[in-house]
Amino acid sequence: MDFRTEFKPLTVQPQEIEEKSFEMITEELGEHNYTEEQFKVVQRVIHASADFELGRSVVFHPDAIRAGIEAIRSGKPVVADVQMVQVGISKPRLAKYGGDVRVYISDADVMEEAKRLNTTRAIISIRKAAREADGAIYAIGNAPTALLELIRLVKEGEARPGLIVGVPVGFVSAAESKEELLKLDVPFITNIGRKGGSPVAVATVNALSLLAERQG
């Protein structure tokens, strides 16, 4: 049997593939109201998800880009809600400024406390992060409970994030947690609705680190 295909890729060069993808995204998205820097984030969100509806739903606090770049260039950590987010974020670009990516959800003390309190590890991990990672960028792509707990801690003055990237995916509390984030007077990047996920959180943080790097 002949398993060969008649389809030939436009290019097999990684950089050319990315550049062509971004050209296609810009063309297909059409007119938008994002600033140039915001659009860099939206491009990468669409690139990671192939979802233009998701891209159009991204919402930025007016200070979000500035706050994200400042946090990265100040060496603040990125707190990920799950390992999937941690793995995807570019560590070298953060390390250049002294930053790193932290995830607490599988820490022994977090698991023990969650069991004792009969609550989610995501909630307890955010409480731990609030104590240990002042000024951090929080990248939440999976757990609405983590985002809701972070919002509560911010309101009560127990957490001081530099930026919240709140894009959890799902059916239970995902959209609602983002609606609550929109009411918060701290820098955030989120989206409207149920869509989101680890790739979106990762793409957002990586876009910010690229913007930080380009500032020199």
From TrEMBL:
Biological or metabolic pathway of the protein: Cofactor biosynthesis; adenosylcobalamin biosynthesis
Transmembrane segments: none
GO terms, molecular function: precorrin-8X methylmutase activity
UniProt entry tagged with the keyword Transit peptide: no
Taxonomic lineage: Bacteria, Bacillati, Bacillota, Bacilli, Bacillales
Residue intervals of the Cobalamin biosynthesis precorrin-8X methylmutase CobH/CbiC domain: 16-209
Pfam families assigned to the protein according to its UniProt record, in alphabetical order: CbiC
Name by which UniProt lists this protein: Precorrin-8X methylmutase
Entry keyword Acyltransferase: no
Top-level taxon of the source organism: Bacteria
Matching InterPro entries: Cbl_synth_CobH/CbiC (IPR003722), CobH/CbiC_sf (IPR036588)
Keyword set, alphabetical order: Cobalamin biosynthesis, Isomerase
Protein's GO biological process: cobalamin biosynthetic process
Family listed: Belongs to the CobH/CbiC family.
Naturally occurring in which organism (per UniProt): Paenibacillus tyrfis
